[in-house]
Amino acid sequence: MRSSSRNLAAVALAVALAIVLAAAGCRTVAPEDRRPSVRMDACAERLHDACGQLLLYYSLHQRLPETLDALATLGAPAPLPLVCPVSGKPYVYRPEGLAVPAQPGRLVLYDAEPSHSGMRWGVLVGGAEEGKRLTTRVVLLPDNAVSAAP
């Protein structure tokens, strides 16, 4: 009887181990059309870094730079890569900003094309036109929001 109990226990242990190993090899794959996350997207991180540079420039000159090349005058230890890591294209910079429907502020920096699941990362600024402190935020916008902006 002891032998059959041991055999049963060994079989149960083997089955449990097989289940654990099979489950460990299973992964959930995110669908291709999943919205990118600002916490995991290199493009959004670059735009966050650009926000810091734009804010510093604004604090020194009380205006946004005419071109992004002016950010190099801030003396950063390494030049900020101002290209989308997905498309490889330089970001579009519009210091006057674009009005984006249903978004407060103006879009000043954004992806040249919708390389992020059909969407574009961009930087919205606010406060400058009202004489308040400049604010920036990185947002993910549908392509039509950028192409429809006046």
Tally of strands: 4
Helix/strand structural class: alpha+beta
Count the DSSP helices. 3
Please, what is the average pLDDT? 76
Instruction: Pick out the low-confidence regions.
Output: 13-34
Q: What's the Cα radius of gyration? A: 25 Å
Approximate strand percentage: 15-25%
Protein described:
By secondary structure, the chain is an alpha+beta fold. The chain has one domain. The protein contains three helices and four strands. Strands 1-2-3-4 form a four-stranded antiparallel β-sheet. The N and C termini lie far apart (84 Å).
Keywords:
150 residues, alpha+beta, four-stranded antiparallel β-sheet, 3 helices, 33% helix
Helices and strands, with pairings:
Layout: H1 2-25, H2 42-61, E1 92-99, E2 106-110, E3 119-126, E4 135-142, H3 143-147
How would you concisely characterize the structure shown here?
The chain is of the alpha+beta class and 150 residues long. It has three helices and four strands; from the N terminus they run ααββββα. The termini are far apart.
